[in-house]
Amino acid sequence: MTTNVLIAAICIMALVTYLPRVVPLVLFRKKIQNSFLRSFLLYMPYGILAAMIFPAIFFSTDSLISAIAGAVVSLLLAWNRRGLLTVAVGGTLTVYIVQWILTLCA
Q1: Count of CB atoms within 10 A of residue 66's CB?
Q2: Which end of the chain has fewer CB atoms at under 10 Å, N or C?
Q3: How do the domains of the chain map onto residue ranges?
Q4: Does residue 62 contact residue 45 with C-beta atoms inside 8 Å?
Q5: 11 phi/psi in degrees, rounded to 5
Q6: What confidence score (pLDDT) does residue 28 get?
Q7: What angle do CA 28, 45, 90 make, to 5 degrees?
Q8: What is the C-alpha to C-alpha distance for residues 48 and 44, in angstroms, rounded to an integer?
Q9: Nearest of 25, 26, 18, 82 to residue 45 by alpha carbon
Q10: What is the 3 state secondary structure string of the chain?
């Protein structure tokens, strides 16, 4: 990944997390009563970030096997309501361990 692509990705992620929070403040004077619209505005940034980040997980390591293992461990930790740091460290450690095992077996 080049520096320009990384900077563009960071800017896009900042934009999609900032706009859904600011637009309702600018457009609506009263509190939004519609529960669908409120939940849509709340979860949209997370969905967009997940759609941008998740495919990159599988191409960020030397082996697809280690990427899948790291993604599975991260998803399981997140499913069990672990913190963001725990999820990130668990997935990273899993990738390193699987990469190490694959290197030993090769």
Answers
A1: 20
A2: C
A3: 3-31+38-105
A4: no
A5: -65, -40
A6: 76
A7: 150
A8: 6
A9: 18
A10: CCHHHHHHHHHHHHHHHHHHHHHHHHHCCCCCCCHHHHHHHHHHHHHHHHHHHHHHHCCCCCCHHHHHHHHHHHHHHHHCCCCHHHHHHHHHHHHHHHHHHHHHHC
CA distance 32 to 7: 34
- What pLDDT, in 10s, does the model give residues 13-61? 888 878 877 877 787 778 878 899 888 878 887 887 788 888 889 988 8
Q: Is the pTM of this model over 0.70?
A: no
CA 101, 103, 104 angle in degrees (round to 5)? 65
Q: What is the C-alpha to C-alpha distance for residues 91 and 96, in angstroms, rounded to an integer?
A: 9
